[in-house]
Amino acid sequence: MASSFEDGKGIENETRRCEISPKNSSTCNAIDGTSLSVMTRLGTIHGMVNESTNCVRQFLHIPYAKPPTRSRRFKPPEPVDSYPGGELDATALGPSCPQFLVQDPPTVYNQDVLQFNLDGLNNTSTYTSEDCLSLSVYAPSIPEGEKLPVIVFIHGGSFTFGGQDVPYQIPAHWVQNTQAQIVVTFNYRLNIFGFPNAAGLNSGGRNVGLLDQRAAVEWVRDNIGAFGGDTHRITLWGHSAGAVSAAWYQYAYDTPEKDPIVTGIVMGSGTELFPLARASTEDVAHGNFTAVARRFGCDAKQTPEEELKCMQEVDVNDLEEFLKQEMVRLMTGENGAVYFTPVADNVTVFEDYKERAEQGHILKVPTIIGTDANDGVPFVPLGSNEVNKTVADAATRMLFFCPAVDAASFRIENGIPVFRYLYVGNFTNISPAAFLGAYHGSELPLIFGTDGEFRGPSTKEENETSAIMENTLAAFASGGAAGIEKTGWPRCEDARTCRWFGISCCFDHRMT
Q1: What is the CA radius of gyration of the chain?
Q2: Average pLDDT value for the chain
Q3: So what's the pLDDT on residue 123?
Q4: CATH assignment of 4-282+316-511, among 3.30.390.50, 3.40.50.1820, 3.40.50.300, 3.90.1150.10
Q5: Domain boundaries, given as residue ranges, for the chain
Q6: Which phi and psi angles does 243 have, rounded to 5°?
Q7: Which residue in 28, 105, 197, 247 is a FRET match for 294, CA 20 to 30 A apart?
Q8: Contacts with 150 (C-beta within 8 Å, 6 or more apart), sequence order
Q9: What is the model's pLDDT at position 99?
Q10: pTM for this one?
Q11: Where is the Carboxylesterase type B domain (predicted)?
């Protein structure tokens, strides 16, 4: 069953179509050993080349902050001073931040397509660690004196799951295909570790997971030039919770005094108005954190600071197991389960984004806002061979499409160049059941170039769609609004106008 978007209801068609660029059409410069050792202000970083993507230099698991353990647990990130001995071996992916995968209720992610999880079928990572604040750089071989644009990717996962070693989201094939940009992926703290909202923390330091994201962007600003990156062309791209994060970033760092760093924003299936990610303002008593503290005997301390210090000493494995049990309770509908997400601190996250936009408190850089035709499918109960189409369509519109229209309108009214897309692809190696269609996140393998890696080869149309999406984002990173308009994609004058990707290449439509 397809969504109403795929059915074509409520759509006005235009004839504009984008050009098809063949996948794997780029040529690459030979990579020699010297280009795999990069001198940064923190020390020399030694990378590697994988035979399957032999035109890509990979620098993996680079710490961008000190280990957030013991006295640093729940606290804002502290930048790395230097690498031990002035050298860093960056030839293997490291652990992601503490998290857990809940098997019930069944979803497309835990039943059908496991490559969206850390423990995908190629098993890139079998462990997590609290010492997880690292990033990875994927760069082509760049001639001396040339600088390439940089795309920094924020992973999704409801601020609870995810990391830089999700199999479908490793960008080496994308960089191999385009040879046009550097891509940086990174971990940030999740669940209670990233969003503790403890009474013992100051109001500007409660969303430490978002501060991790900022610290990663600052590391890129300070060091990416050594890898051939252009610090004046840095695009922040997020998906789902990562898209919400990118939207929040656009409001939090809106003036030159706040050093926005980024020159473009891309939000895929998530905005500042996404209902399920609206920051909590109700936990003013810090009850969730204290509920966990009570489980470990830390709630009887005399002051919030003592409670926090006690919780910093709790074994990380015990914390993870407790939070897993709470997530199971939450997912099965039990009352009283604790859950940790960002809070409105009016520093990193604000309470009223409509008001912020009306006051012009938003970073005015070109912005792409996208949604998927079946975004709502993973958010409704999954049956053996179908979902309730009416409920799924309602979830798609309420959670994704309508908030995206409003978020686009905020930016258009502020004079920001906005580009809207709707992904409608339904390819069997990504969507194993036809009714899944273009579900939440299903475009990511096509952008990262991993669509044909795990579940069978890609079709000709899928390869064409992948090449277009890869090259379009690269063009945006390279030239901003002008760069993307050169591909034939016009900026929005109407927030409902979308470019479609995934069916007969790409067309522009107005959604009604």
Answers
A1: 22
A2: 89
A3: 41
A4: 3.40.50.1820
A5: 4-282+316-511
A6: -70, -40
A7: 105
A8: 181, 182, 183, 184, 220, 224, 229, 230, 231, 233, 234, 235, 477
A9: 87
A10: 0.93
A11: 36-383, 385-494
